[in-house]
Write a structure and sequence with these properties.
Layout lengths: L7 H11 L7 E4 L9 H16 L3 E6 L9 H14 L7 E3 L4 H13 L3 E4 L3 H7 L17 H13 L8 E4 L14 E5 L13 E3 L1 H12 L3 E5 L6 H10 L8 E5 L3 E2 L6 H9 L14 H7 L3 H11 L7 E2 L1 H12 L5 E2 L1 E2 L2 E6 L7 E7 L9 E7 L1 E5 L19 E4 L4 E9 L5 E9 L16 E2 L2 E2 L4 E8 L24 E9 L11 E4 L3 E5 L10 E7 L10
Parallel strand pairs: 1-2, 2-3, 8-9, 10-11, 12-25, 14-20, 18-21, 23-27
Antiparallel strand pairs: 4-5, 5-6, 6-7, 13-24, 14-17, 15-16, 17-22, 18-19, 19-20, 23-24, 25-26, 26-27
Helix pairs in contact: 7-8, 11-12
């Protein structure tokens, strides 16, 4: 994409700045703290932040904590950590909707005094019945024509806690015949005798999102309320509240964009909650999920997610992105940055019979062949080494270039070795492979110029350390799709997590710290798990395999 290419949101902003509707750009990300952020939220965070940056404006983080039935301080802290990790900086602009409850109450009183809101005694079911349908207008509530004085008295009594939950609500008086269902006298306050995570027991009435949200934007001076397409039908109500509350200077403008959807992933909070409760995953940050915390734990970098959001684009049309594109962005990011190390995940011993029995040597190898700036390290080599079991076949098919009796292969960065045979146990399982090496081929190159077609990696037995490695696949059984059509449950992939406990790794990895990323050569990119690792005993998560058929579409 060319640098001067602008998306439709930036075109709207340019227009509003040019015609003087606003004189500054203030955006915000307003999550409700009722769960963990997922990959779709990353788009909203980064869009709002980068727009503010591009226009030298201000970015706010605001918690829309107006529903105490679902919100927790745990979620507040996790959201802040996720946004920081993504690279968005709100500076001193951290806000809570609940801090505006006094002002929201006063705005509600102002609207009542104007005759544009009333206290309703209908039940939730009755309100739905009176609301009408898409083809039939709604009916006025019997309470709609209450006097201003009576509405003020009842609303004050609601605030005082006189009435039980669900007995009364405050509704905006707009138009019960409106073709937009959201404008048919929407509820703007309800009674809920529930302690709030921020305000405690101070309030027993709480504003609804559609009323609170534009007021929050107006109070903070937000000029552009960027939200997803499901709020498009709510825009007239947003504008109604902005006007009724008198936010006339730099008024906020709502602009909708398409969500970021990923194919065959689980993002719904109730589904993730059930996966957690059923013990299928070990928490909201389980590496098989696509919450931001899970992606971070698995080993994705913030740079890869920012690139993925950029490639997904900003539009008004819903579309579905492929998880393979997210993996592509991760590979492209880690390819020049991650040290390349040797790890044998399914080990079998290779004995080099003509290598001095007690000798050990150190080979100097590059940390990343594509990035010399990462330097080199010393890797021990000895007579006995571990190789991957699938790098040997006693009776191989054609075009198998790895180790088999009589074949010569290159041990990566070490020597040429010719296989001479193998040992087996009573059940016919291969226990030891034997070979001989060419001392003149140190470093992996023969002085006589002969070529070998197979190169395999290895780890010296004497200095290797045993580690646990977790291999992850999609939590969803992709052949069946995400949801079971019969009961709506998740079609869980039974092979989504494989634990390997006998992996043999080179000694440089023993002191690896949480979140460090590596390329295990010939295997994939791996990350140190922050939760399962202990001092001197890192546990590694496979982030992504090395190869993929995914290619970026050509312009």
């Amino acid at each position: 994409m060319e640098e001067n290419t602008k998306n439709f949101i930036e075109e709207f902003i340019d227009e509003d700045l040019a015609n003087g509707r606003v004189d500054r750009v203030v955006t915000r990300f307003p999550p409700e703290p009722n769960g963990y952020l997922h990959i779709g939220h990353a788009k909203a965070v980064l869009l709002n932040y980068t727009i503010a940056q591009k226009y030298h404006g201000t970015f706010h983080l605001r918690f829309d904590d107006t529903n105490p039935t679902k919100e927790k301080s745990e979620f507040v802290e996790s959201i802040k950590a996720d946004i920081r990790w993504l690279g968005a900086d709100w500076g001193d602009n951290l806000f809570y909707a609940s801090n505006y409850f006094d002002q929201m109450y006063e705005y509600a009183v102002r609207i009542i005094k104007k005759g544009d809101a009333y206290v309703d005694d209908l039940s939730a079911d009755e309100i739905r019945a009176y609301r009408g349908t898409l083809t039939e207008p709604g009916k006025n509530s019997p309470c709609r024509d209450r006097s201003v004085e009576e509405n003020l008295k009842l609303f004050e009594e609601m605030k005082a806690g006189i009435y039980p939950d669900g007995s009364r609500v405050l509704r905006a008086k707009i138009d019960m015949a409106s073709p937009n269902m959201n404008m048919r006298d929407p509820v703007i306050y309800r009674i809920a005798h529930i302690p709030h995570q921020n305000t405690g027991d101070k309030w027993c009435i709480y504003p609804l999102y559609d009323f609170a949200h534009p007021i929050e934007d107006g109070i903070e001076g937000v000029t552009f309320s960027l939200c997803t397409l499901e709020f498009e039908d709510h825009r007239p109500l947003y504008n109604w509240v902005v006007k009724e509350c008198g936010f006339n200077v730099n008024p906020p403008r709502q602009i909708e964009f398409a969500k970021l959807y990923l194919k065959n992933v689980v993002t719904g909070k109730r589904y993730i909650k059930k996966l957690v409760e059923d013990g299928i995953v070990d928490g909201w940050d389980d590496p098989r999920l696509v919450s931001i915390a899970a992606l971070r734990r698995r080993g994705f970098s913030p740079e890869s997610i920012r690139r993925f959001v950029e490639l997904s684009g900003i539009s008004k049309s819903n579309s579905v992105s492929d998880y393979a594109m997210l993996e592509y962005c991760l590979r492209e990011d880690l390819k020049p940055k991650a040290p390349r190390v040797m790890a044998v995940l399914d080990p079998v011993k290779l004995v080099i019979d003509n290598y001095p029995e007690d000798a050990m040597e150190e080979l100097e190898v590059p940390n990343n062949q594509e990035n010399p700036e990462l330097g080199t390290r010393k890797v021990p080599f000895g007579r006995e080494i571990w190789i991957n079991r699938d790098d040997f076949m006693e009776n191989p098919p054609k075009k198998y270039f790895r180790m088999f009796p009589g074949n010569e292969v290159r041990l990566m960065n070490a020597y040429f070795v010719t296989c001479t045979g193998c040992e087996k146990d009573a059940d016919g399982n291969i226990t030891v492979i034997h070979g001989t090496y060419d001392p003149a081929s140190r470093g992996g190159n023969s002085p006589d110029g002969r070529k070998v077609k197979g190169t395999i990696h290895w780890v010296a037995v004497r200095t290797a350390f045993q580690a646990e490695v977790h291999l992850y696949e999609n939590i969803v059984d992709e052949e069946k799709g995400v949801y079971n059509e019969e009961d709506g449950s998740i079609n869980v992939n039974p092979h989504s997590r494989t634990v390997l406990v006998n992996c043999q790794l080179e000694p440089s990895l023993k002191d690896a710290k949480a979140y460090q990323q590596f390329q295990f050569v010939r295997t994939g990119y791996f990350n140190v798990d922050y939760r399962d690792s202990t001092e001197g005993h890192p546990v590694f998560n496979r982030i992504v395999e090395l190869k993929s058929s995914f290619r970026l579409p050509k312009d």
